[in-house]
């Protein structure tokens, strides 16, 4: 049991160190994948398009850096900016979403990349605290399992 807890503890420790060391690469990959998802965005509601819509609605953002990122997509040429960028669904017409100057007043202008990364960084202290607490419980479990094993080994041949 102590060996299993030690293995889990080491896996969590390695994952935390790797996440910390490669955080810049994670950001770069996220930005590239978000740009790719915007480029391939379509109405057929595939997983990537749904993810983009969810991020934009939840964080109240639009595009990667800002709402004008949509101008370079095929979706914009056909339909304009997606409705998930609208501040108010009732006040967003398709004509407004096809014109960037009109859309600026109707959609969220902030990009999603900065909001996602700043949200993740602000929650990192909470994640680190919870991880530290779990690690402490694992270490206590490892120590108690070793003590129990030692106690059983010492008293193995004692008469009851």
TrEMBL record:
GO CC, alphabetical: plasma membrane
Topology relative to the membrane: Multi-pass membrane protein
Keyword Glycoprotein: yes
Keyword Nuclease on entry: no
Transmembrane segments: 126-152
InterPro entries: Tetraspanin/Peripherin, Tetraspanin_EC2_sf, TSN6/7_LEL
Signal peptide as annotated in the record: 1-19
Subcellular location: Membrane
Keyword field: Glycoprotein, Membrane, Signal, Transmembrane, Transmembrane helix
Pfam family, one: Tetraspanin
Entry function: May be involved in cell proliferation and cell motility.
Protein name in UniProt: Tetraspanin-7
Organism (species): Urocolius indicus (Red-faced mousebird)
Annotated gene: Tspan6
């Amino acid at each position: 049991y102590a060996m299993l807890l030690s293995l889990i503890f080491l896996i969590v420790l390695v994952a935390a160190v790797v996440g910390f060391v490669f955080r810049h690469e994670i950001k770069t990959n996220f930005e590239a994948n978000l740009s790719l998802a915007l480029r391939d965005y379509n109405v057929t509601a595939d997983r990537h398009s749904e993810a983009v819509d969810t991020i934009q609605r939840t964080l109240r953002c639009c595009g990667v850096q800002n709402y004008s990122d949509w101008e370079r997509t095929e979706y914009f040429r056909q339909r304009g900016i997606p409705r998930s960028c609208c501040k108010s669904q009732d006040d967003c017409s398709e004509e407004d979403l096809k014109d960037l100057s009109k859309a600026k007043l109707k959609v969220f202008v902030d990009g999603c990349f900065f909001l996602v990364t700043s949200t993740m960084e602000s929650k990192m202290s909470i994640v680190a605290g919870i991880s530290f607490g779990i690690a402490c419980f694992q270490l206590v479990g490892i120590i108690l399992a070793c003590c129990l094993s030692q106690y059983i080994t010492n008293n193995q041949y004692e008469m009851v």
